Amino acid sequence: MSAETPGGWQRDAFRDMGGATAPPEPAPQQQPQQPPQPPQPRPSPPRARPPHRPEQPAPVSAPVVRHDVGSVPARRGDPFTRRAGRALRQLLMSSAARDTAEATAAARAIQQPITTGRQIAVTSIRGGAGKTTVAALLALAFAHYRTDSVLAVEADPALGTLPHRLGAEQVRWSAADLARIVDPSMNITEVTGYLLPFTGSSGGPGGGWLLPGSQGAIGAELDIDTYRIVMTSLRRYFGTTVVDCETLPAEVARTALTTTQARVLVAPATPEGAAATRSVLDWMAGLHRSMLPTTVVALTRSSPGMGLNDRKAAAYLEAGGATVVPLPYDRSLAAGGEIRGALLAEATRAAAARLAAETMNRAMSRGRGGGAPA
C-alpha cells in the first residue's frame, strides 16, 4: 500500500462538497533537525463562560392610562344596605360559621404545597366576557394566600388591560423584551428586575409580579416562540403563574390550553354564553381525555340583571368533568380600573377564593397522574 499523499484528505473533502477547489498540495520541505525540548507544563483549560447575551436597548416606560382623561371613582362592590344586612345576619344566624368554614377550606386548597411551578391559562370564547378581570382576581388571590412567588403574564398584548387591573401605572419591559434577555444563569432578583410588582388582594401582605404583553401598541403580537421561551424560562422561579390569554381560537390561547396544568374558561352568564361554552368544552374533550377534569368555567355577570340559573348551568356545563364557579355582579369591578381588594363585595371575594381553590386543585391533579399533556 502506498503512503497517503499529504493533503489528499482535503482534496477528497472539497470534492465531496460539490467540486470546490482544494488547496494546492504543499511542496515537501526538508525539516531541520531540532534538539529535543524539555517537556512543558500543560496549560489549564479555560474556564467556561456564560453565553454572551447581546446588549438590548432598554425600552422607555409608557403610561398605562392617561390620567388627564379622567379617573375611575372608587365604589364598593356591596351597597350600604347589603353590608348592613350581612352584619345583622352574622349576629343572628349561623351563616357566619358556615362562611368561615368555606373560607378556611378555600385557603387550604390555595396554599397546598407544590414541588414544581403550576401554570394556569385563562381564556374566553369572545371579548367582553371578563377574561382579564378573572385573570387579575386569580393572580390577586394567589398572591394573597401563597407565600411563594406568583407571576401574572399578559399573553393578550393587543391593547390588553391586565396591567391596569393590577394597578400598574407604567409599562416598560414586555414579554418579547424578556424573551430576548432571559438566560438560565439569571437569578430571581435579576428576573424580577424586568417585572412589575403588584399587591395581594384584601390588603394582605402578599404580592406578585406582572409581565406585560406590550406597551399598549395597536398591532402588538406575541408569537408562539416568544410565549414558549417566557413560560419555560420563568417556570422555575415562580410557584404559580396565571396567564391572561387571547380569546379563542387564537394560536397562543390554543397552545396555552394544552400546555398548562389547569385552565379557566370565562363565559358570560347568559344562555348564549353557556351554549357557546359547551361547544368549546366538547372541542377540548376531543383534544385530550384529561382536559375537562382540569378545566374550570367561570360564569361572569357584567350587570345585576343577568339571571342565568347557576344550578342548571352547572349541570349543563359539568357533564364532561369541568367545574363551574359563578362570579356575582360587583359594582367595583364593573367600574373598571384597578381592582382594589378592600372594595370588592364579600360575595366576590368568596367566589374568587373558591375559583382559585378549584383551579389549584385541578392544577395539582396533573402532578398526581391526571391533567392534560404539557
TrEMBL record:
Entries under PANTHER family matching the protein: ESX-1 SECRETION-ASSOCIATED PROTEIN ESPI, SEPTUM SITE-DETERMINING PROTEIN MIND HOMOLOG, CHLOROPLASTIC-RELATED
Compositionally skewed regions (Basic and acidic residues) per UniProt: 65-79
Amino acid composition bias (Pro residues), ranges on this chain: 23-48
Full protein name: CobQ/CobB/MinD/ParA nucleotide binding domain-containing protein
Domain of life: Bacteria
UniProt region (Disordered), positions on chain: 1-79
Gene3D superfamilies for this protein: P-loop containing nucleotide triphosphate hydrolases (3.40.50.300)
Organism encoding this protein: Streptomyces johnsoniae
Record Pfam families: CbiA
Every CobQ/CobB/MinD/ParA nucleotide binding domain range: 120-163
SUPFAM superfamilies: P-loop containing nucleoside triphosphate hydrolases
